[in-house]
Design a protein that fits this description.
transmembrane, membrane, transmembrane helix
Length: 119
């Protein structure tokens, strides 16, 4: 995860700014809006996995589920990843330096987007 993003998340969790789901949702919305502008396809998939891993570790399972729901509904990855590129990433997923959780998230997200494009 890029250092500035990790720092913002750590600051928010450490100093109690993300104590309520409302604050947490606003924080994630703000952070992902900025990232949506900056990062291309592959980076967005990896970033989403890192973000979920950090949130799960520091904020708990409810926050992780809320973030996953937001990522799915906001089309965070869909917006910049054409289907042909997403399909090409799946066979080579082992080439990336991913934790098991990141890899699982990336595969499930790529598969979910592939299915939604086919419908």
């Amino acid at each position: 995860m890029p250092l500035e993003i990790h720092s913002q998340l750590h600051f928010g969790v450490s100093y109690g700014y993300l104590t309520s789901l409302k604050h947490f949702t606003f924080f994630i919305f703000h952070l992902l809006t900025i990232l949506n502008i900056i990062y291309p396809c592959r980076s967005r998939i990896l970033l989403a996995g890192c973000l979920l891993e950090d949130i799960n570790r520091n904020c708990g399972i409810r926050a992780r589920h809320g973030t996953m729901e937001y990522l799915h509904r906001s089309n965070f990855v869909n917006g910049s990843c054409p289907l042909s590129y997403r399909i090409s990433l799946l066979p080579g997923i082992d080439k990336f330096n991913l934790t098991e959780e990141q890899k699982t998230f990336a595969i499930s997200e790529l598969e979910r987007m592939k299915i939604s494009d086919e419908v």
